[in-house]
Amino acid sequence: MKELKNGNCIILPNIRSSFNVGSIFRTADAVGISKIYLVGYTPCPLDKFERPNKEIAKTALGAEKTIKWEHVDDIFLLLEKLKKDSVQIIAIEQAENSVDYKKVKLKEKNAFLFGSEVGGVSGEILQKCDVVAEIPMLGEKESLNVSVSAGVAMFRIVGV
Length: 160
What we know:
This protein is of the alpha/beta class and 160 residues long. The chain has one domain (8-158): Alpha/beta knot (3-Layer(aba) Sandwich), CATH 3.40.1280.10. The chain has helices at residues 18-31, 54-60, 63-66, 75-84, 123-126, 146-158, and strands spanning 8-13, 35-39, 68-72, 88-92, 99-100, 110-114, 131-134. Helix 1 runs parallel beside helix 2 and helix 1 (18-31) packs parallel to helix 6 (146-158). The two termini are 27 Å apart.
């Protein structure tokens, strides 16, 4: 795992949809993210034979080529490594200890962690995060699509 240039990265553990991943790549490019960590079964822009993932390419519109990315099997090893590099881990999730996402204070280096489409971010992972930030929901639905959450949170927190 390489050192981050501008200090902001995204962590995507076990995202099922290539379309969501591509959309997050595009948002990451828009807000100046330096790297995306694709964890577990999250699809990558290139498969093991170096063939492009057409669904990611369709929604990323080239951002999958401008944003550095890395596949990681073990999220806990990744979080440990990032913490050793003084990266603040910010999970975007609904939890008892969450704070309003509008009140998150960035540090020099930050990692934004978004959970899977069905289960969100597990409690075990949340315990390893420095901040749990929640996007308020005023309607009847409990959550947003992961790529929409990434867009809402990233633009507000990064301050674009």
